[in-house]
Amino acid sequence: MARVFDRGVLAWCLYDWANSAFGTLITTFVFAPYFITAVAPTPTEGTVLWGHASSIAAALMAAASPVLGAAADKIGRRKPWLGGFTALCVLFTAALWLVRPTVGDVPLALALFVCAAVCAELAFVFYNAMLPGLVPRAFLGRVSGRGLALGFAGAIASLGVALLGFVREGAPLAFLDRGAAGHVRATAVMVAAWYAVFALPLLLLTPDGTASGMPLRRALREGVASLAATLRGIGRYADIARFLAAYLFYSNGIVTLFAFGGIFAAGVFGMTMEQVILFAIGLNLAAGIGAAGFGWLDDRIGSKATITLALLGLLAVGGALAATRSPAVVWTIGPGLGVFVGGGQAASRAMMARLSPKGMEAEMFGLYALSGRATAFAGPLAVAVATDAFDSARAGMAAILGFFLVGLLLIGRVRAPGR
Fold first, then answer.
1. Which of 80, 77, 83, 79 is nearest to 212 (CA)?
2. What are the DSSP calls for 252-283, one per residue?
3. In sequence order, what are the residues at sequence separation of 6 or more whose Cβ sits closer than 8 angstroms to the Cβ of residue 376?
4. H or E stretch including 331?
5. Whole-number pLDDT of residue 329
6. Confidence of residue 55 (pLDDT cuts 50, 70, 90)
7. What pLDDT does 419 receive?
8. How far is CA 361 from CA 125, 168, 196, in A?
9. What is the number of other CB atoms lying within 10 angstroms of the CB of residue 291?
10. Disulfide check for 8: which of 176, 206, 265, 288 has CB 3.0–4.6 Å away?
């Protein structure tokens, strides 16, 4: 088991930095707003289409992650799976360059986004599953928090590169055809390169499990059998089941909130692309601080108490943002939302690591991913339906708060794991 600060652990944390550019620039703050404002027929229809595409990606990922996680436990190694899905995500992301600002490219945009998003999420299953074997149990909270803090720092850095190098007038890549959105489309290529380069340290330096020598086909077969046995005997893992039920709801709210953050900023508060990116930088800076701070708090008061605190904060700040019509209020309290998002995500990963039985980490993190994605269609669908029904993106924004409330009620039934 590695020391808290050795290079293998730091390389593991850096993968969060690598992955963050995809979630920040593609899923949330650049490509998603570009799609709804420049590719889709109308912003409202674009929001609905993006919501449905996000739901499809979530459903595919939810179906695959527990089976592949259980198979990885049988094989004993996680890095080959992580590396393979990372490479596929890089390829699909780079191909988003082909999406031009024309309605005819809507199917291509959605297909590439769904494929890239599924691969990014599956890679993260195996990344998370490496955490319990890296450091002593007493440090799971702060290592998880530091990884997420690096992720949010990477989000800020990638946003800065996108803003200064691609989006602003007079940027170094100003020679790209802005009429064909070349400066925005090029950010997809930048994200692909970013992901590939910063994922390498983990693949080269972080220790992996010992290979069992089991063939892939047999591992898949036995993985399915193991997963079925786990689900049939879920009573033996009662606290894991209770936690996953709570996580199913509140993670839905967190993912949907970040996925539609750029859309809300542009559609509800009329921010320009440059303002959206600046707001995103502030949001991610706050989230990184929250992840690091709450990770430290997790190792002292426990994961359950830390998650509860984060959910209360999300309800308070999220409710204020849904009610306000003042851009000044958004700029003032909006970053506070990031503090609780970062803290909640760090504590959730640490809690799953603490609850996972030894030798079943990938299977359990596959179920963790399944819980986060099995009904992940519900968040984007709720936004799409509320937006469509009320012809207002603000209504979709308000719909997210219900997921935080249900998660808060359910987390109270979980017995706190040891620290």
1. 77
2. HHHHHHHHTHHHHHHHTT---HHHHHHHHHHH
3. 54, 55, 58, 59, 61, 62, 251, 252, 255, 256
4. helix 327-355
5. 75
6. confident
7. 52
8. 10, 44, 25
9. 31
10. 206
- 7-411 carries CATH number 3.40.50.20: no
Two tokens at 361?
């980490």
* Residue 33 near residue 272 (C-beta atoms within 8 A): no
**Contact between 330 and 324 (Cβ < 8 Å):** yes
- Each domain of the chain, given as residue ranges in start order, spans 7-411
Q: What is the pLDDT of residues 398-417, one digit of tens each?
A: 788 888 999 999 998 888 76
Six-digit token string for 405: 């409330």
Q: The tokens of 336 are what?
A: 């506070």
**pLDDT at residue 367 in the model:** 82
d(CA 347, CA 354): 10
The phi-psi region of residue 14 (left if phi > 0; otherwise alpha if psi is between -120 and 50; otherwise beta) is: alpha
The counts of H helices and E strands in the chain are 17, 0
Distance CA 148, CA 124 (A): 12
CB of 372 closer than 8 Å to CB of 351? no
| Contact present, 171 and 164 (Cβ < 8 Å) | yes
Angle among Cα 336, 341, 347 to the nearest 5 degrees reads 130
Burial class of residue 51, CB neighbours in 10 A (0-12, 13-18, 19+): buried
For residue 274, give the nearest of 191, 383, 177, 183 by alpha carbon. 183
Q: What angle do CA 250, 405, 289 make, to 5 degrees?
A: 55
Reply yes or no on whether the pLDDT at 15 is more than 90.
Answer: yes
The secondary structure of residue 215, as a DSSP letter, is -
Please give the backbone phi and psi of residue 265, each rounded to the nearest 5 degrees, phi first: -60, -40
Q: Provide mean pLDDT across the span 382-406.
A: 79
Buried b (16+ CB within 10 A) or exposed e, 1-11: ebeeeeebbbb
Q: Decide if pLDDT at 12 tops 90.
A: yes
Q: Tokens 């390169």 identify what position?
A: 193
- Residue 208, Cβ neighbours under 10 Å: how many? 17
Supply the pLDDT for residue 140.
Answer: 86
Q: Report the candidate in 78, 180, 89 with the shortest Cα–Cα distance to residue 133.
A: 78
- Confidence at 377, pLDDT banded by 50, 70, 90: low
